[in-house]
Amino acid sequence: MIQKSIRFFLVGVLSIFCLQVQAEITTLSSAINKSGRQRMLSQRILKTYTMIGIDVNALIAQQQLNDAVKLFDTQLAELIAYAPNKAVKKGLDKVTRLWGPYKAAVNQQVDREKALDLLDTSGELLSACHKVVLMLTDLSTTNAGHLVNISGRQRMLSQRMSMLYMYQSWGFNNSLISSQMSQDKNEFKGALAELTEAKENTDTLKKQLRKAKSEWRLFKHGLDGNEKKPIPFIVNLAGDKLLKRMNDITGLYTNLNQQ
Q: pTM above 0.90?
């Protein structure tokens, strides 16, 4: 029964996002949210790819990979249709150019020898997506737009840290991966503190952020665990739980900005 519940949770994480992104983008805060979600998807796609490689919930991971690719395609089309100026359009053109080869690579059979190249490619795509988020955030006239960006980036960090852990479990544990993991942990902690102190927080947001803090502690405990006995299944579960929480929080900031 417990395993069945976990399976439903794992499958449901992306389906929750799919329900939220059916409508066209009509507001700047929604554009910031969705462009920020593209950052997360760039890392989630590679995380699920590595999970297949190390045979951790491989069937579910394949479904999640497929769902993430479809969602990235859908949101990219929505963002292109919404693009408010030439700079954003140019930024999305670069995302499109990088997305094509990346999408083709992850849709092929998992290959450990290509894993490090994919890590570099995912980083380039993430950087391009992040620049689009920043351009859209700069157009916002309220601090809530900034909060949508920061909380949305937490979603990406949850998936990148999970992905890096999967790489370590796969036998890749070079200094660059270790350094990025350490950097991400510090960034997540700092951003969570910034969000917690935001004067815009409602009672609902304060409650959700307290839960996020507890979930972050559990996730970090897994990430910091004994390297000789990796626990990728548990780390992935904790990371996805944190991802869902931060997605809910980002949605609350998005609605706040629209008001």
A: yes
Angle at 19 between CA 14 and CA 21, to 5 degrees: 95
3 in a structural domain: no
Give the C-alpha distances (Å, rounded to integers) separating 132 from 64, 87, 255. 24, 9, 20
> Which token pair is 157?
């960090």
Query: Which structural domain, as residue segments, surrounds residue 106?
Result: 27-258
4 in a domain, yes or no?
A: no
**Would you list the DSSP string of 192-242?**
HHHHHT-TT--HHHHHHHHHHHHHHHHHHHHHTS-TTS--HHHHHHHHHHH
Long-range contacts at 94-98 (CB < 8 A, ≥ 24 apart): 94/128, 94/131, 95/38, 95/125, 95/128, 95/129, 95/132, 98/124, 98/125, 98/128
Q: State how many domains the chain has.
A: 1
Please report whether residue 223 resides in a domain.
Answer: yes
Whether residue 163 contacts residue 177, with contact meaning beta carbons closer than 8 Å, is answered with no
> Considering Cα of 8, then 71, then 157, then 206, what sign does the dihedral take?
negative
Residue 128 belongs to some domain of the structure = yes
140-194: pLDDT as tens digits: 988 989 999 999 999 999 999 999 999 999 999 899 999 999 999 999 999 999 9
Q: Which of 87, 103, 192 is nearest to 135 (CA)?
A: 87
